[in-house]
Amino acid sequence: MTAPVKPAWIAVDWGTSNLRAWAIGTDGAVLAEASSEDGMGKLARDGFEPALLRLIGPWLDGKPPIVACGMVGSRQGWCEAPYRTVPCTPVDRSALVLAPATDPRLRVMIAPGLKQVQPADVMRGEETQIAGALRLMPDYDGVLCLPGTHSKWVHISAGEVVSFQTFMTGEMFALLSEASVLRHGMQGDGWDTAAFDAGVTDALSRPDRLGARLFSLRAEGLIAGLSPQAARARLSGLLIGTELAAAKPYWLGQRVTLIGAEKLSSAYAVALAAQGVEASRLSASDCTLAGLASLSPQTEAAR
């Protein structure tokens, strides 16, 4: 018989598509983890509490505090956690928002996102990863890049987020490869490293030609036998290269650390290395957990 899980607190990362939770012990170790596809985008406001109970109900006997980050705190989420304005620390325990709950075992505190007034930009969820990165790398000054659906470039100084910029690179890749005319030549999930490198180089040298280079992928597939794996890789290279061209003020001459999934972070690392930037890498999950731990009442009590 499996022993019941009795966490000191529970960490929750609640995004648009997925819900992830970790039961954390008094020593900070992960006792158990669980996930579901009950992301914010699939739930009405009254569906958040039931979704969380379905996932972590067996962990709640001791009424452990719950700290959550991500889209759960958006305007369309469980309850809105208002953005904090940069420059500021990535997270602030005093800014946590208590979610309304009917189950007496639930006390869910939600971390706010960050906003930048000019140029207008927002993040929600990444601020917790940034806090985790700074916990894992004390006294870090430099730039953090968080590749993903909406990639973030973040300037860090003296423990604060000074400024940031978002690029819709991942979403553009998904739309172009799955819903545009380019989809006909990109079936499968193969990869061609040389095609990726060529795409990055092409985009960095002439980012103004992106629209034309995109259609050439379709044309080469029709008349020159461009393979699906080469087309997908070159598309990725073109989009990441265009992002790097626009984000150059962030990474040129700076210390850069990548926070994200292994495969995507590797692609960014390769693209940056070609420009003479040797980026360090951190796991997104490790940073999320470390960031949520910095907000946990147990962490505060241990100080």
Uncertain ranges = none
Rg (CA only): 21 Å
Helix/strand order:
EEEHEEEEEEHEEEHHHHHEHEHH
Q: What is the CATH homologous superfamily assignment of the largest domain?
A: 2-keto-3-deoxy-galactonokinase, C-terminal domain
- Count of all domains: 2
Structural class: alpha/beta
End-to-end gap? 36 Å
Average pLDDT metric: 95
Q: Per CATH, which architecture of the largest domain?
A: 2-Layer Sandwich
Considering DSSP H and I runs of 4 or more, what fraction of the residues is helical? Answer: 25-40%
Largest sheet: 6 strands, mixed
How does the overall form come out from the CA principal axes? globular
Strand order of the largest sheet: 3-2-1-4-7-6
CATH topology of the largest domain: Nucleotidyltransferase, domain 5
Number of strands: 14
According to CATH, what is the class of the largest domain? Alpha Beta
- In DSSP terms (H or I, runs of 4 or more residues), the helix count works out at 10
Q: What proportion strand?
A: 15-25%
Task: Characterize the structure shown.
- The protein has 303 residues and is an alpha/beta fold.
- It has two domains: 9-124, 2-keto-3-deoxy-galactonokinase, substrate binding domain (Nucleotidyltransferase, domain 5, 2-Layer Sandwich), CATH 3.30.420.300; 167-283, 2-Layer Sandwich (Nucleotidyltransferase, domain 5).
- 37% of the residues lie in helices and 22% in strands.
- It has ten helices and 14 strands.
- The chain has helices at 48-56, 126-136, 169-179, 193-205, 210-223, 228-246, 248-251, 262-273, 284-295, 297-302, and strands at residues 9-14, 19-24, 30-36, 66-70, 84-85, 97-98, 108-110, 114-116, 121-123, 142-146, 151-157, 160-167, 256-260, 280-283.
- The strands form three sheets. A six-stranded mixed beta sheet has the order 3-2-1-4-7-6, with helices on both faces. The protein has a five-stranded mixed beta sheet with strand order 12-11-10-13-14, with helices on both faces. A three-stranded mixed beta sheet has the order 5-8-9, with no helix packed on it.
- β10 and β11 (151-157) form a beta hairpin.
- α3 runs antiparallel to α6 (228-246).
- The chain is globular.
- The model has no long low-confidence stretch (mean pLDDT 95).
